[in-house]
């Protein structure tokens, strides 16, 4: 057989690139047209906002409603203060009366003459605040305890020195400075933020969106779509296009979710008191950020290849998800030795997991965020991951091609390759 002319090689590369672009665009556009794609994006931040909103409104409205009822004389409350801490001015402002006859006050609650009675013991540390109230409902009854605490808190704040009140309410702030051996100021938290973001984003993508790739791969086998595509496109080009399209879509989903969460935080901060975020502490370390980006990209490619390989080798999405639990568990393995990772980053178990392909992504990103990952270990770890990713892509392409024909049963890696049409 004669050797291919260089011009033919160039044409073949253009043809493969053209096919890759077709697969990539087809997968991206097809997913963007699905309502389920956008629903999955909006569901997560919407659920977070709903849970946060309900919990915040419920906790705030309990005390606000009780105090409003007191001010409008809709709630009649009497207290007995043996602690001596309740301020008379606070009682007057809140419309609360006091009495020395505990039993009479309790009887008045029972007869419905007053709504609630609170007894503050002389020893608040060892004793308990006794709350007696008119039964309303399971959830509404909680306002009595909240109001009893509010009376004592307001009294303490009005009588206590502001500095002491800050200590007791844990509102103290500190400004810390730490220095390296060369005299430069260290910023451990600021250095960690950007590399840690890539670690969190990796977990978010794999844990939330991994089943999408498995399901899509299995569904295409069941619908015989893959079998038709393989008549015109090589399995390696097809699998590569699918993986890169999946990564694009997942990153788009993650960025939209993060944008919605941050936008919701900014909007909510205008109406409620939320902890502020000081962006000035973030530092830019080009080397650590470059390592974080490289680890993130290679890790996503490797795990995406694993997902496609599993989806191609299994006949149903349910079985594919059960097999996916193994690499997912290995991905979380470094967290089980997190204390060792922090205290002894050179320990044998840490080094072993650092260079094992399925545990390397998370462990290398954690070490990079902590600032204990050397350049040499980063290069070796990335090299192992790149080689593993290439091998996984080759295996995934083989399984994908075989699975397109034998879609009704589980595929073995060394099954005889099906004959292709001329």
Helices and strands in order:
Layout lengths: L5 H27 L2 H37 L5 E5 L6 H7 L2 E2 L3 H10 L4 E5 L9 E4 L8 H18 L2 H7 L9 E2 L5 E2 L1 H35 L2 H5 L5 H35 L16 H28 L3 H16 L5 H6 L4 H7 L5 H11 L4 H31 L17
Parallel strand pairs: 1-2, 1-3
Antiparallel strand pairs: 3-4, 5-6
Helix pairs in contact: 1-9, 2-5, 2-9, 3-5, 7-9, 7-10, 7-11, 7-14, 9-10, 9-15, 10-11, 10-14, 10-15
In short:
The chain is built from 15 helices and six strands. The protein has 422 residues and is mainly α.
Structure, described:
This protein has 422 residues and is mainly alpha-helical. 66% of the residues lie in helices and 5% in strands. Helix 3 links the parallel strand 1 and strand 2. Helix 2 packs across helix 5, helix 9 crosses helix 15 and helix 10 runs antiparallel to helix 11. It is elongated, with a radius of gyration of 32 Å. The relative contact order is 0.09. The N terminus and C terminus are likely disordered.
| SS content category | mainly alpha
Shape: elongated
What is the strand tally? 6
Mean pLDDT: 75
Question: Radius of gyration in whole Å, from Cα?
Answer: 32 Å
Order of helices and strands: HHEHEHEEHHEEHHHHHHHHH
The N- to C-terminal Cα distance equals 17 Å
Strand content: under 5%
Largest sheet: 4 strands, mixed
């Amino acid at each position: 057989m004669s050797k291919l002319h260089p011009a033919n090689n160039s044409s073949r590369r253009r043809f493969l690139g053209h096919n890759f672009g077709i697969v990539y665009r087809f997968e991206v556009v097809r997913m963007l047209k699905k309502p389920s794609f956008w629903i999955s994006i909006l569901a997560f931040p919407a659920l977070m906002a709903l849970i946060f909103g309900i919990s915040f409104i419920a906790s705030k409205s309990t005390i606000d409603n009780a105090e409003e009822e007191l001010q409008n004389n809709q709630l009649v409350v009497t207290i007995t203060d043996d602690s001596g801490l309740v301020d008379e001015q606070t009682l007057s402002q809140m419309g609360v009366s006091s009495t020395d006859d505990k039993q009479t006050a309790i009887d008045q609650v029972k007869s419905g003459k007053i709504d609630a009675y609170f007894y503050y013991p002389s020893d608040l540390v060892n004793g308990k605040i006794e709350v007696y109230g008119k039964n309303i409902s399971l959830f509404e009854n909680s306002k009595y305890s909240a109001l009893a605490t509010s009376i004592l808190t307001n009294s303490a704040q009005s009588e206590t020195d502001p500095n002491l009140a800050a200590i007791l309410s844990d509102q103290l702030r500190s400004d810390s400075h730490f220095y390296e051996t060369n005299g430069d100021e260290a910023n451990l938290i600021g250095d960690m933020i950007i590399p840690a973001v890539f670690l969190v984003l990796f977990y978010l993508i794999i844990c939330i969106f991994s089943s999408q790739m498995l399901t899509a791969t299995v569904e295409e086998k069941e619908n015989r779509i893959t079998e038709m595509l393989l008549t015109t496109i090589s399995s390696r080009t097809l699998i590569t296009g699918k993986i890169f399209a999946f990564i694009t879509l997942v990153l788009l989903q993650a960025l939209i979710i993060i944008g919605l969460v941050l936008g919701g935080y900014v909007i909510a901060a205008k109406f409620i008191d939320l902890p502020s975020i000081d962006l000035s502490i973030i530092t830019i370390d080009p080397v650590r950020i470059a390592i974080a980006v490289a680890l993130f990209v290679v890790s996503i490619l490797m795990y995406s290849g694993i997902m496609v390989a599993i989806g191609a080798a299994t006949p149903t999405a349910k079985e594919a998800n059960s097999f996916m639990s193994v690499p997912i568990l290995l991905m979380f393995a470094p967290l089980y030795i997190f204390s060792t990772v922090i205290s002894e980053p050179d320990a044998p178990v840490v080094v072993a997991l650092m260079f094992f392909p399925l545990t390397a992504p998370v462990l290398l990103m954690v070490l990079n965020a902590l600032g204990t990952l050397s350049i040499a270990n980063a290069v070796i770890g990335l090299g192992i991951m790149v080689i593993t990713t290439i091998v996984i892509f080759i295996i995934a392409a083989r399984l994908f091609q075989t699975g397109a024909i034998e879609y009704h049963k589980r595929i073995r890696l060394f099954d005889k390759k099906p004959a292709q049409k001329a």
